[in-house]
Automatic annotation (TrEMBL):
It holds the Pfam family Metallophos_2. This is Metallophosphoesterase family protein. GO terms for cellular component: cytoplasm. The lineage of its organism: Bacteria, Bacillati, Cyanobacteriota, Cyanophyceae, Oscillatoriophycideae. InterPro entries: Ap4A_hydrolase, Calcineurin-like_PHP_lpxH, Metallo-depent_PP-like, Pesterase_MJ0912. Belongs to the metallophosphoesterase superfamily. YfcE family. GO terms for molecular function: phosphatase activity.
Length: 271
């Protein structure tokens, strides 16, 4: 079966509509979404309504969680105090815009979905706030896939698409017993595993404004990273019109994360 997997729409309706059109043109039989329907973008309700109307199976993203639970999760990924303040502004704006029905929908989203040997998460099987970066060491990456009890782990959250294949091999783990000099060594063989990060529909950070998603064939295990051009200027104008920080429009147009990446390297999260 040919499936489409997307993530991190972030209230960008124009990007979502472009991706849905591309998915239809490629005759995908099922769509899955890895969360972050809201946040940063100007059309949170329109995006959630579209996902609901199409009945797309969706896991809860970190922004979806925070809109429901309140901004109580640690966001140490903010590169500066200024960026953190703008993130809080975006949260407050989105929180005031979201309808009770859509808030209820977001609250009921599961943290993981499992279909056969495939697992869908937002960040990682441990937390939708954890980043599975492409440069993560192989043992940690493999542990995350094993934790999902799947062969293929789909994730988002980083906004940068990649595919990482973890070859089968022999692993040896040392288990230390408290108050004992006897260490137990356990070894096991793992089959080939794969992490597929689908990037972001609504706020890409791979250096271009184009939306990204993945088409995956569950029978052949072949995959295609798709990049879809759309009228991002429409979303940029809407960001400014609704009163969100203009820098959100800048970074969407550039396909970058933050303008002031190294502005305050001394910032330490105090939550």
């Amino acid at each position: 079966m040919k499936i489409a997997v997307m993530s991190c729409i972030h209230g960008n309706l124009a990007a979502l509509e472009a991706v849905l059109k591309d998915i239809e043109e490629h005759s995908c039989e099922q769509i899955y979404c890895l969360g972050d329907l809201v946040g940063y973008g100007p059309f949170p309700n329109e995006v959630v309504n579209t996902i609901r109307q199409l009945k797309i199976p969706t896991v809860q993203g970190c922004w979806d969680e925070d809109i429901v639970e309140g901004l109580n999760a640690c966001e140490c990924s903010y590169p500066s105090l200024l960026a953190e303040k703008r993130g809080i502004l975006a949260h407050e704006w989105t929180n005031n815009q979201i309808t009770p029905e859509n808030r209820q929908y977001l609250s009921q989203l599961p943290e993981t979905l499992k279909i056969g040997n495939i697992c869908f998460v937002h960040g990682s099987p441990q937390s939708n706030h954890e980043y599975l970066l492409a440069e993560m060491d192989a043992f940690t990456a493999l542990e995350r896939v094993l934790a999902s009890e799947a062969d293929v782990l789909f994730c988002g959250h980083t906004h940068i698409p990649y595919v990482r294949t973890l070859d089968s091999g022999q692993l040896e783990v040392k288990v230390s017993q408290p108050d004992s000099e006897n260490n137990q060594f356990l070894s096991f063989t793992t089959p080939l595993k794969r992490i597929i990060n689908v990037g972001s529909v609504g706020e890409p950070r791979h250096g271009r404004p184009n939306a990204t998603y993945v088409i995956y064939d569950t029978f052949t295990e072949e995959f295609e990273l798709r990049e879809v051009a759309y009228n991002y200027q429409e979303t940029c104008a809407a960001i400014i019109d609704v009163g969100l920080p203009p820098i959100f429009a800048w970074r969407l147009a550039k396909g970058l994360e933050y303008a002031e990446k190294a502005e305050d390297p001394t910032h330490i999260c105090e939550r």
